[in-house]
Design brief:
- The chain has about 300 residues and is of the alpha/beta class.
- It has a single domain, classed as NADP-dependent oxidoreductase domain (TIM Barrel, Alpha-Beta Barrel), CATH 3.20.20.100.
- It is about 35% helix and about 20% strand.
- The protein is built from ten helices and twelve strands.
- The strands form three sheets. The protein has an eight-stranded parallel β-barrel, surrounded by four helices. Strands 1-2 form a two-stranded antiparallel ribbon. A two-stranded antiparallel sheet has the order 6-7.
- β1 and β2 form a beta hairpin.
- α1 crosses α2, α2 packs across α3 and α3 crosses α4.
- The longest helix is centred in the middle third of the chain and has 15 residues.
- The chain starts with a strand and ends in a 12-residue tail after the last helix.
- The model has no long low-confidence stretch (mean pLDDT about 95).
Length: about 300
């Protein structure tokens, strides 16, 4: 496994991270899969209090309780469960963040969280209050670092200029290159790590039947499928080619991949041993479709 420093932190994170949202409900099976991931060199595990109404944090906590010193745990906050127990309300207030960290720590069975992330964000949020809450938690030793999970350029710019975030989790793939216009250069300039999610575009870049995606027609998505397939093969599957494309872009620290089965784990972890894309292959994939841009929150 390859490891990269996450922004200005001292965290060496595996280039393939484990997206825990895909975990099922069987604690024993989850623990087995997590152990296999650790054996494969994956040390970054990403969850959120929102996932499965907190049960995702619980199952991850059980899986990692005897391996805490070997891993980096990231979770997220900001979505408050409504009284109906099903829907959520956005709440980035400092009071809420400070209260919720205790619940996440309990569910994760740990004394600290390595990376605590704001799970979204709008330009109308009380951003300074949110930042103060995260800084308070750092001083208290509840969290080591903090970041945001956002695809909104206007929100990202505010946190870059006003906070000490070490990372931004954002969607990035061959079918979603919107971050290239302004976000990736800005984050690289300030040495803030980028955790790419959705790099397989919901399976569309792993061989799933083509569908329209983010303004791209089904025909365009199919064209991208054919391009990926043409430069993939026994040494590098389509999914691995798609992940390689994301990882080889400037500023990307790691790809966070949703993993549910041992087969998916083997393919994702195997990216590190697959051939790098050549410059001509990267350009070939880029030329397979027109680049897309953010239309809102610019």
């Amino acid at each position: 496994m390859k490891y990269n420093l996450l922004g200005k932190s001292d965290l060496q994170v595996s280039e393939i991270g484990f997206g825990c949202m895909s975990l099922g409900t069987d604690d024993k099976e989850n623990a087995s899969l997590v152990q296999k991931a650790i054996e494969a060199g994956i040390n970054y595990f990403d969850t959120a209090d929102l996932y499965q109404q907190g049960d995702n944090e619980k199952t991850l906590g059980k899986a990692l309780r005897s391996r805490r010193d070997k891993v980096i745990i990231a979770t997220k906050v900001g979505n408050q469960l409504n009284p109906d127990g099903k829907s959520w309300t956005w709440n980035p207030s400092g009071k809420y963040i400070i209260a919720q960290v205790e619940k996440s720590l309990e569910r994760l069975q740990t004394d600290y969280i390595d990376v605590y992330q704001l799970h979204g964000g709008t330009i109308g949020d009380p951003i300074d209050e949110t930042i103060t809450a995260f800084e308070t938690l750092v001083v208290a030793g509840k969290i080591r670092y903090y970041g945001i999970s956002s695809i909104r350029p206007d929100v990202i710019r505010e946190y870059v200029s006003r906070s000490r975030i070490i990372s931004v989790m954002m969607q990035y793939s061959l079918l979603d290159r919107r971050a290239e216009e302004s976000c990736l250069p800005l984050l690289a300039e300030h040495n803030i790590g980028v955790l790419a999610r959705g790099s397989l575009a919901g399976g569309l870049l792993a061989g799933k039947y083509a569908n329209a995606y983010l303004g791209y027609s089904e025909d365009v998505v199919h064209k991208v499928y054919l391009a990926l397939k043409s430069i993939s093969g026994p040494e590098r599957t389509m999914a691995q080619t798609a992940l390689r494309f994301a990882l080889q872009q400037t500023g990307i620290t790691a790809a966070i991949v949703g993993i549910r089965t041992p087969q998916q784990l083997e393919e994702a972890a195997g990216v590190i041993n697959s051939p790098l894309l050549t410059e001509s292959e990267v350009q070939f994939l880029r030329n397979a479709l027109p680049v897309n841009y953010y239309e809102q929150h610019r």
